[in-house]
Structure formats: C-alpha cells, structure tokens
Amino acid sequence: MEIEIQLTNEPIAEKISPPSNLGPVGAWLEFRGIVRDEENGQKVSALEYEAYPEMATREIRRLIETISTRHPCLAARVIHRLGVVPICEAVIYIGVAARHRAEAIALLGEFMDRLKQDVPIWKRRALPLAAAPRPVSFAPAKTTVQSLDEALAKIHSHCRPSPAIRAPLAEICGRVLRETVCAPEDLPANDRSTRDGYTILAEDTAESFQIIDTIHAADWKPRQLQHGEAVRVATGAALPCGGVRVLMQENVERSGDRIRIMKREDALNIRKRGEDVKAGSPLVKIGARLDAGKLALLAAAGCAQPLVSQRLRIAHFTTGDEIVSPDQTPKPGQIRDSNSILIRGLLQKFSCNLEQKHLPENFDAAWRQLDLNRMATADLVLVSGGASVGEKDFTRPLLERLGFEIIFSQLNIRPGRPLIFGVNGSHVAFGLPGNPLSHFACFHFAVALALTRLAGKAGTSFLRGRLATRLDDQPCPRETLWPARLEFSDSKIHLHPLAWASSGDVTCLSEANALVRVLANQGSINAGTEVDFLPTTDIMDT
Amino acid sequence: MRVLFFAQLQDATGCAATELALPSLMNTEQLWKFLIEQFPALENYQKNVRLARNWEYANAETRFTDVDEVALIPPVSGG
Lengths: 542, 79
Hints:
By secondary structure, chain A is of the alpha+beta class. A six-stranded mixed beta sheet of chain A has the order 15-12-14-13-17-16, with no helix packed on it. A six-stranded mixed beta sheet of chain A has the order 24-21-25-29-28-26, with helices on both faces. Chain A has a five-stranded mixed β-barrel with strand order 30-32-31-33-34. The longest helix of chain A has 19 residues, at 436-454. Chain A starts with a strand and ends in a 7-residue tail after the last strand. Chain B has helices at 8-13, 28-38, and strands at 2-5, 17-19, 26-27, 50-53, 56-57, 63-64, 69-73. In chain B, 22% of the residues lie in helices and 28% in strands. Chain B has one domain (2-71): Roll (Ubiquitin-like (UB roll)), CATH 3.10.20. Chain B is of the alpha+beta class. The N and C termini of chain B lie far apart (30 Å). Chains A and B meet through strand 4, helix 1, helix 2 and strand 8 of A and strand 2 and strand 5 of B.
C-alpha cells in the first residue's frame, strides 16, 4: 500500500489529484476536517496546532498499515496542517484509494478515531474572536506617566515566548533556535588527510614504499597498513587506519607503483576525528538567532528540522487622513506616508509575516475595514499615528475594542512620549506616535524588545560606548533617546550625536544607526563621556 | 538524553527540549521519578501523559538509556 504523509504550515490545496498508476482503483475517497468557529463553547477565529513531527509521521503510517490489514486499500494520503489555522479552513486532508468504497470508508473512519487518540498533534490554543464591541470612550484616558526602565520591564514581563515548531533549515534563517542542538557524532567523523600525498605507518623508517591502494575524498577503505606499504590519499580522504602519517606528494619521488622519500617532515598532516566537535557537545545553543553560519553547522550535524520560534504574524495599520502614498503629490496639509516602508524595513530582520493597511480617520469607518478574524491571529499589532490625545486620535479606543488591556499610554521620554502598549492574552499591541523619528526610536527600544521576547530570546539591552563629539542639549525633564551615528575607528566605537529639531525630523533617520540614552535633566554631554546606547542596525553594516 | 516537552508541558516546564544526563539504564517508572526530580511541576501531569522513546510509545517494560530521545506526550488533539 502506498502511503504519503505531509505535515505543513501552509494551507492545504483546494484540489488534490488522486495518485496515478495504482491499478484497479474503484473508489477515491477524500475527507477534509475543517476548523469550526467555536471551541468549548467560545467563538474563535483560529486554532493553533503543534506536532512532534518525527513521531506523528511514524504513528500515522503505523495506524494506516495496521488498519489496512483489516480493510485493504491501495493508497492513502494524509496532510495535517500545523501552526495557526483560521476557521473554515482545512486542518486535515485524507485521500484513500481502494478497489471498492466499503474498504476506503471503513479505513477512513477508523483512522480518524485512532488519530485523535494516538498521533502526537495538539491544538495548542484557540485564538479568540476579537472581543465583542465595547462602548468606546474618546475621553482623555487617565494614565500614569512611566519611565523608560518601567516601560521596558512591563514589555519584558508581558511578552512571553510564542510556541516553538520544527521547520526545515531552508525556511528558518533569522529565527530563534528553541533547543540546544548537540553533535550526533564526531566532526570530522574519522581521521582525514590534510594533504594530497601518501599515507604510511607513522613510525615506519623505510625509505621506499610500495603503493598498494588509492583513497579519494569520498572513499571509505579501512585496512591495516604494513611496514613498507603506502596508500595514495587525496586531501580530505578518510585514512585507512590509525597510527599513520601523510607524506606530502611534494616530498616524495614516485616511479611506477613505488615512492621514495626525498624529505622527511615532523607534521603528521592529519585532521583528527572529533577535532572540530566531539559527539554530544553543544553545537548551537538555545536562544541563538539562526544566521547562515549556524544553519550550515546544523546542516553538517544532520539537524534538518530544528525546533525554532514560529514566524511571527504582524498587522500594521497607518492612520490619519493627511497621509498620501509616496507616489502622490501631497496637497497643502498632507504628507507622504514614510512610516509604512520604515516599519517594513525595520521588521526585515525579524523573520515575520507582515500585513499592512491604511485606516480612515473616522473610527466607525476604520472599524468596518478591519478583518477581525485576521486581527485575532496577529501576534503583534502596530498602529501608526493617532497615539496622542487629539480629538481624532483613536488608537487607544481601537485597541481596547479589539480586546487589548492598555498597560501604558504615556512615557516620560522623548521622542516617543505618547507610546501605547497593550496586551491581550499572548498578543501584544503598540500604538506608535505618528512622526517618523518617534517611530524609529519606539521601534528600537520597545517593539524590537517585544519581538525578541516573543521569538523566545532573553531580550535586548543597552551597550556602552563613547561620545566622539559633544551632545548639545538643554536639560530636559524627560529621558531622551538621541539619534546618533555610530562609527568604528581605532578598534573602538565612536558615537556622533545627530542634529534633530523635533520628533518630526525625518532627515536624520537616514544617518542614524544608534540611539544614545540621555538621562532626565542631564543636559549637554561632553565628547569622550561613556554613555548607554542602542545600536539600530547590525553593527557590521554601519 | 534528549527530552522533549509538548503542548501544556512546555508551559509547565518552561522549555520545549532539554538534555539530561541519565545516570543509569532506567525503566519507565524510574525515568518518571528522575524527570519529576528535575521538573517537579511534571508530577501533576504524570497520570495523563505517555512517554515515547525514539518516536514510539513506551510501555512498562521499555528501558531507557542516555542516548535515547524521550518525549512526554500529553493527551493528543489533532485532526
């Protein structure tokens, strides 16, 4: 019987053709299990599934093989979806081919019963439908002003690691590893030659040797060498036995199937088994962000489906009727939208799925445009603009109606004072003040911290660096995240504070690659002073 | 020994996977005792959780060694 099993994070195709060339098929039975719109009496927007993939695949196969001894069928195909599956979409697909319908129906029925008992796949959580619309208040909210440190602590404690999944190496660049991967075997797995040359016994004092074999890089030819014997080896070839050395081919003279040593050297020219890594030692540790080098190491170690953080789902809304798209000419009073591309660019390194949408300024019109079921599956909601307490600013009421509890809505910092942070179960939301520089600052100290935490890492922290030029400022009662240009010279980090007039200053964004922390009432800071700063790009890209 | 936790057990233990050094060959009962020593929160789950050794469900006779992959399987809910 042919059995095909797939566990996938992608939607199951609408049409799946039956396998061909099976012989006398008289029945092709298909079943799709669909996510219902309620779970335990609660309306939901999606269910999230998790699996132990290696074992789930084996169990599915074992069950089908067992059941088919009683109800013989010709082929079966099982696709189970993992991750977030919205309502009305298929979570499982089963196709069964048989000579007659009775066997196919019997196998399908029994298999579904057993799947629900034995196959290690779990509904991890139900994502609630957006909360029932609540009365909305546009009155200025009573809110306590918080310090930067208090805000960071709140974000840190409210953002919990999202569930981890197993995924193939090709899909997980930039994600966070959620397990420590250890070497399954010694690397290299055996002693290897580091030269093109000839292997002889390490202590063999003969001057002339008989060539008895050739070992290429991919060969495996274990044999015990004897006195006076040599084996031709290529660089990287596995050596035939222990206790040998490799003579460089430059140091011997070959004639026919014999060699003679022209020059003896001390080096063995061998890369020893386990020289890189010993079996069982940790290769990549839990919490590492997977870059190309780490992925290559996992591949070399045979870890094809490591446990990693899920790709985070992010919904970003821009608001404000004064915003026009970059390809339009703004009328008086209008400005071009730079925040959409700013957020898209800033999110690039976080390996996430981003959906962006512009909302009208009218609250009810904006509410009607939201796809609430999609909203409910977003791990992180960002709203640009509408974050202060102006009459039309509606971020806070919008987040509240979506079910978010507002944790803070004003910070004692600049830029970014009206930053809003809300929490709804494991989902979090930020309302970002509309101007680009505030976006930039708030993203780096607040949103990046939330994303890092959701991905399963410990968090971000300020680094220490020296001001290369004086930072000119009037003492300000608020803490400041001052845009700066970070440069390397003399093996040291130098920070150049950039000129910015107000939080609407967009020109300094193209230069800024760091934010310098200026304490409340600190005023100007002299060149040469050590300060806290946050890098805002990978330091090597500066 | 590599130990994997799934579903609510990840919340209970705070991790999805860990490496434990198994001091000796153990049967299922001994392994449970060992795991609960490492993660006391697991005690409340023991009754409803099955152990799997190298991708197959274990039973009372199963023997576990340090090179095995062990998974704790709470009641499943796929499909």
